[in-house]
Amino acid sequence: MSQALIELSDLGFAWPGQAELLDIPAFTLQRGESLFLKGPSGSGKTTLLGLLGGVQKPQRGQIQVLGQNLSQFSAGARDRFRVDHTGYIFQQFNLLPFLSVRENVQLPCHFSRLRAQRARQRHGSVDQATAILLAHLGLDQPDLLERRADALSIGQQQRVAAARALIGQPELVIADEPTSALDADARAAFLQLLFAECREAGSSLLFVSHDQSLAPRFDRSLSLAELNRATQLAEI
Amino acid sequence: MYLLRLALASLGNRRFTALLTVFAIALSVCLLLAVERVRTEARASFANTISGTDLIVGARSGSINLLLYSVFRIGNATNNIRWDSFERFAEHRQVKWAIPISLGDSHRGYRVMGTSTAYFEHYRYARSQPLQLRVGRTFTDDPFEVVLGAEVAQALGYGLGEQIVLAHGVAPISLLKHDDKPFSVVGILARTGTPVDRTLHISLAGMEALHIDWQNGMPARGAAQVSAEQARAMDLQPKQITAFLLGLNSKIATFSLQREINEYRGEPLLAILPGVALQELWSLMGTAEKALFVVSLFVVLTGLIGMLTAILTSLNERRREMAILRSVGARPWHIAGLLVVEAFALALAGVLLGLLLLYLGIAGAQSYVQAHYGLYLPLSAPSGYEWRLLGAILAAALLMGCVPAWRAYRQSLADGLSIRL
To answer: Among B357, B347, B350, which Cα is nearest to B400's?
Structure first.
């Protein structure tokens, strides 16, 4: 089995009626690898993440995730594939404010039987997995589980979001500027925990940010601008 | 199941708008059901006004007019009929009983009806229920005795032995009073929920005595006045009455007797079948009643459109919620389903609250409505028809829920996982 988790080849994408936004000849993410992808806003990184999640379909080229060609799947199958194998952490306001912390963490298990099953296999039950993940991420106050998500600080919320991305050990965790709302200390601590948990779950981490200072902590660092021929052309 | 939990939690997060929406739907549902109940009861109590009477006979005019003044105490007779006409048909071999009715006077807005004791014996309402005395007795030989309907006694606070003065004519405020000949209350009827409750009953002799010294519609003056004592000694046989009710030995004879009365050569008479006339009258009022129903249907529609507006308005602020759900694996149809469930939950809560309001309202207003409008609103479970109405409201809500669902479906396809807020 190939060690590549994600393989893009000759990918081209444009929003309807617009010039081509992404033109990526080749891109690979290895299993278990942590990759820093630098991209300023407007560089097409959100679109790229959408493509990797199978929300959008490229006009040309191939996206292989876990050896499967996403373009061949139906929209529903792509949705299922995404939740089975990918956890997401966004910039901020990741959580549904009206659900408890526990319910937020367990959301993927309601939509993916595979993730729920893996969580049970590893920790005995989904509730157990939730508590353990949160404890690993430094959220081990007993009353916190049932608190409403919006009662937490931003830093705590991001860690809950990380727990949600990690529950059921997806092969890939995609983090889109998850630290931009945190101060420097919290940022470092958050990254530390995220790395540790990804390693523990065996997940690859694709971390997108414009903050170059974080790059040295990753296995590998790339700039979307280098990757993407379309922006290079636009810049010229 | 999990969608339901999510939808309820999300609604709970917007509980103020959600409550307002539910309340608007509840009020409209309550209104619709209340109108429906009043409508049904009004129709029933209307049909219950008179029963057991086979023919109503009066001077020739319209059948509805005759029904209105003889049974509902509304409007006036165009003409009186002669006593000998009444006698002739009262003694007809097909006739089992006859009740003479003489109208024209009033007491503080309530109609006074001159009649005979046959009225208390033979008049029937609802399902052949006879009139019953709550207290006292019916009038006897003394002409100046009055038997009150239940509402008259209650509204005016009269008890047995009360001396009351009748007024000439039927206007609420009458300048001509029969104050020289007061009547004493000898009986009060039990409540019937019909116009009987709003009537004062006196004997025909009493009616005659009141007007014995009147000339050309004016009371006599000076020496021409006849006192109550003098009147008692006089011949009080009435010469004319307003109408009469007939009960026949056999229903089969109804039509032939009706024809006979209508072709009577002594004077122009009109005989009507109360059931047919009631039907005609109801078909007149039916339009108003239908209009009321349609209006309340539109109120329900307004309530549902309010819900639709509230959900549609919330969609934009909830893009983030949708995107998060998408990122944790919700498919676009999950998002659509969430909104349909939400619409249905709002409507269901509205319907339930509406029912609660209805029953609270009925419980609170029951006695008042009965006392003032003669309508008995039962605290009964919703009828099959009402259940169907409620079902239709919920179905409409589901259908309306498809509009935001479709929009959210499109929106979540376009937005994907990106949050553009």
So the answer is: B347
If asked whether residues B208 and B344 sit together in one domain, one would say no
Interface residue B233 vs chain A (CB under 8 A): no
Which of chain A's residues have a Cβ under 8 Å away from the Cβ of B342?
Answer: none
Domain containing B222: what range?
55-272
Distance, in Å, from the CA atom of A222 to the CA atom of B304, rounded to the nearest integer, reads 53
* B224, B81 contact by CB (below 8 A): no
A96 to B10: CB separation less than 8 angstroms, yes or no: yes
Same domain, B167 and B247: yes
Q: Which amino acid is at B37?
A: R
State which amino acid sits at residue B39. Answer: R
Q: Per-residue pLDDT for A105 more than 60?
A: yes
Amino acid making up residue B88: R
Closest by Cα among B134, B228, B225 to B185: B134
C-alpha–C-alpha distance, residues B391 and B383, integer Å: 12
Structure tokens given for A7: 């393989």
pLDDT band at residue A236 under the 50/70/90 scheme: very low
This complex has an ipTM of 0.85
pLDDT at B420 over 80: no
Chain centre distance of CA B280: 16
Q: What is the pLDDT of residues B214-247, one digit of tens each?
A: 777 777 777 677 788 888 888 888 889 999 999 9
Domain boundary among B230, B247, B272: B272
- Among the candidates B272, B300, B331, a domain finishes at B272
* Total length of chain A: 236
Burial classification of residue B157, based on how many CB atoms lie within 10 Å of its CB (0-12 exposed, 13-18 middle, 19 or more buried): exposed
> What tens digit of pLDDT does each residue of A179-229 get?
887 788 878 888 888 888 888 888 899 998 888 888 888 889 888 888 887
Q: What's the domain count of chain B?
A: 2
Give the closest residue to A29 by CA, choosing from A190, A222, A231. Answer: A222
By percentage, how much of chain B surpasses pLDDT 90?
48
The verdict on A15 touching B (C-beta cutoff 8 Å) is no
Whether residue B278 lies inside any domain: the answer is: no
Q: From A94, which residue of chain B is nearest by alpha-carbon distance?
A: B324
B413 to chain A nearest CA, in Å? 8
The reply to whether B101 and B146 lie within a common domain is yes
| DSSP-assigned letters across all residues of B3-38 | HHHHHHHHHHHTHHHHHHHHHHHHHHHHHHHHHHHH
Q: Write the residue in A49, A55, A108 that is nearest to B328 by C-beta.
A: A108
> Rounded to whole angstroms, how far apart are CA atoms A108 and B327?
9
Amino acid at B55: L
Whether residue B146 contacts residue B120, with contact meaning beta carbons closer than 8 Å, is answered with no
Residue B299 DSSP SS3: helix
